[in-house]
Specification:
Elements lengths: L2 E7 L3 H10 L8 E7 L4 E7 L2 H7 L10 E7 L14 E2 L5 E6 L5 H10 L10 H11 L4 H11 L4 E7 L6 E6 L4 E5 L2 E5 L11 E4 L4 E6 L2 E6 L4 E2 L4 E2 L15 H7 L1 H9 L3 E2 L2 E2 L8 H5 L3 E6 L1 H18 L3 E5 H4 L10 E7 L5 H12 L3 E6 L5 H5 L2 E4 L12 H21 L4 H22 L2 H8 L7 E6 L2 H17 L2 E6 L16 E6 L5 H12 L4 E7 L11 E5 L8 H18 L18
Parallel strand pairs: 18-19, 18-20, 20-21, 21-22, 23-24, 23-25, 25-26, 26-27
Antiparallel strand pairs: 1-4, 1-10, 2-3, 2-4, 5-6, 6-7, 7-8, 8-12, 9-10, 9-11, 11-15, 12-13, 13-14, 16-17
Helix pairs in contact: 3-4, 4-5, 7-13, 7-14, 9-13, 9-16, 13-14, 14-18, 15-18, 16-18
The structure holds 2-deoxy-2-amino glucitol-6-phosphate.
Length: about 600
């Protein structure tokens, strides 16, 4: 996902923009650029490659003097990564510069019409259309030109714009792609996300769809897309500044793994009152909760995997049928949703395009949507009928850990609440579960203490070619997540399989020394999973088992065992994921991978 930073004030803009973009590197990008007004004209510098290239090109911003400017890190969608395709883009006279995050879906016909009017394009991007369209409509009034353009374009955008003959203003606009505006005594800021400007201000505005902001050195004015001035409330960000830094850990991912105990505590504690679960943000009475006849969970990636766990937990406790689906499939298959279905969209970033589209599809069909989201004020959070925030704080590493664990905790609370309202569990059973849930943070702490042991084992597999994860029932759900964690950061091929399914084909891939990670945390399935482990061992596999304390029988079918503290079987995923996260992390570290910013990936996929 692209990153945007803009500044106008009494300080040099370029160093502030470069610093802000560096805090957005986690979003994934392939090129970077800046445009700064130097008192006479707009100066543009941009290049393919890491932000360091731009820093070197501009001597840390020194060669771009000026107190108003915009910057961008690009994650390519239209047009390969290249200097010319990187942002900012200019109109032909170089008097208007624009940066963009999102996709202009009707850029081809717009580009054609502009070319017919004599405009010449230099890039393959959709964004360059905006620069020329702004030029076409600009008659000296930036706001008028911008709103005219916004009425013409379709798709998603977060924009930063500067006009050479309006050097005391920068403009921003937003539709579907996140954009915030900040203010301080030193000036005004725009950014794609809070970490970019947290160093300069904690007072921010979350822009809503089709809003335009005019930033000046001494203040900000917001307008609707019809040029009507609108009032917005600022939000005070209370994140610690170091929350966006590594706090001494080698990688954000490791830091965030270690934050999981706190993340779960922060997510469950505010919703447990007098030994009962109170989820006010559901905005649903107990009667409405009791009427839910089906739940449809829609998400992507790890959030989808959390949904698979959620299915097992909700069905086990509340006896409500749950369907789980990846958002990119849901949105185009004309889904059949039964009456009284609650749709749950799970998304850490709250900006994943497919998940946002699934939310809109569900609402368009008249279904209530609950968002389980980590980023406050994100698109999914704002468009869902109700939102259950996971209080994981900013998650910087592309590979999610703490936000995923918080999603599990949210689903446990929801399942228990539904079960209690529907009377499918007794009060005694409810209290038992509550006690087990409260113990999870400390148990995770214990498992994190096995870091060195897991690291030692993982080092043996830095050269692995294929690694398989198997499990039955809820252990299959965590195998999916364990496999994704490994492959997305270490680039080692991996697959997760329902343990009983392996013998229907994929077992043919098992060779001498192939590592198979068998997750077995459900006592009623211990023996079944042992049989599957014996099957793969007979074909030469090396088996790592992740199982509950006391399951000693598994040793005869294992080469390496990680024991988990005793917990309620339906909460076991929250414990089993810890050794799997550590395993994937240390294989990636051993392979010298860029753990926090894996190749080809972005923290939030805001394009299809
Ligand atoms: C998780 O480690 C991956 N980075 C990715 O699968 C992610 O979970 C997925 O893109 C969904 O993101 P979201 O939760 O922000 O919607």
């Amino acid at each position: 996902m692209c990153g945007i930073v803009g500044y106008i004030g009494n300080r040099q803009a370029a160093p502030i923009i470069l610093d802000g973009l560096s805090k957005l590197e986690y979003r994934g990008y392939d090129s970077a650029g800046m445009a700064v007004y130097d008192g006479k004209k707009i100066v543009l510098k941009k290049s393919v490659g890491r932000l360091k290239v731009l820093e070197n090109l501009t001597h840390g911003g020194e060669t771009m003097p000026g107190t108003a400017g915009i910057g961008h890190t690009r994650w390519a969608t239209h047009g390969a990564p290249s200097d010319v395709n990187s942002h900012p883009h200019l109109n032909q006279e170089g008097t208007i510069a624009v940066v963009h995050n999102g996709i202009i879906e009707n850029y081809i016909p717009l580009k054609k019409r502009l070319e017919e009017r004599g405009y010449q394009f230099v890039s393959e991007t959709d964004t360059e259309v905006l620069a020329h369209l702004l030029d076409r409509y600009y008659k000296g009034n930036p706001l008028e030109a911008i709103t005219k353009v916004l009425h013409r374009v379709e798709g998603s955008y977060a924009l930063g714009i500067i006009f050479a003959d309006h050097p005391d203003e920068i403009y921003a606009a937003r539709k579907d792609s996140p954009l915030i505006v900040g203010e301080s005594e030193e000036g005004s800021f725009i950014a794609s996300d809070v970490p970019a400007i947290l160093k300069y201000t904690r007072s921010v505005y979350y822009m809503d769809n089709q809003e335009v902001a005019q930033l000046r050195r001494d203040g900000i004015t917001f307008y609707s897309v019809d040029e009507e001035e609108i009032r917005k409330e600022s939000v005070q960000i209370d994140w610690d500044a170091d929350a966006a830094e590594k706090a001494g850990y080698e990688h954000f991912m490791l830091k965030e793994m270690y934050e999981q105990p706190k993340t779960i505590t922060d997510t469950i504690s505010p919703r447990i009152k007098d030994n009962d679960i109170v989820i006010e943000e559901l905005h649903m009475t107990e009667e409405e909760l009791g009427k839910i006849e089906k739940i449809h969970i829609v998400a992507c990636g790890s959030a989808y995997h959390a949904g698979v766990t959620g299915k097992y937990v909700i069905e086990n406790l509340a006896r409500v049928p749950v369907e789980v689906e990846v958002a990119s499939e849901f949105r185009y298959r004309d889904p059949i949703l039964a009456p009284n279905t609650l749709v749950i969209i799970i998304s850490q970033s709250g900006e994943t395009a497919d998940s946002l589209a699934a939310l809109r599809e569900s609402k368009a069909r008249g279904f209530k949507v609950l968002g389980i989201v980590n980023v406050v004020g994100s698109s999914i959070a704002r468009e869902a009928d109700s939102v259950f925030y996971t209080w994981a704080g900013p998650e910087i590493a592309v590979a999610t850990t703490k936000a995923y664990s918080a999603q599990l905790a949210a689903l446990y609370l929801l399942a228990m609440k539904l079960a209690k309202v529907r009377g499918t569990i007794s009060e005694a059973r409810f209290q038992e579960l509550l006690m087990a849930l409260r113990r999870i943070p400390d148990q995770i702490e214990l498992l994190l203490g096995q870091k060195e042991k897991i690291q030692h084992f993982a080092n043996r597999y830095v050269g692995a070619r294929d690694i398989f994860f198997i499990g039955r029932g809820i252990d299959y759900a965590i195998s999916l997540e364990g496999s994704l964690k490994l492959k997305e950061i270490s680039y080692v091929h991996s697959e997760a399989y329902a343990a009983g399914e392996l013998k229907h084909g994929t077992i043919s891939l098992i060779e001498d020394g192939t590592l198979v990670v068998a997750v077995s945390t459900q006592p009623n399935l211990y023996q079944k999973t042992i049989s599957n482990m014996v099957e793969v061992k007979a074909r030469g596999a090396f088996v790592m088992a992740v199982t509950g304390e006391g399951n000693l029988a598994i040793e005869k079918a294992s080469d390496y065992v990680v024991y988990l503290p005793q917990t309620e079987p339906i909460f076991a995923n929250s414990l089993a994921i810890i050794p799997l996260q550590l395993f994937g992390y240390y294989v990636a570290v051993g392979r010298g991978c860029d753990v926090d910013k894996p190749r080809n990936l972005a923290k939030s996929v805001t394009v299809e």
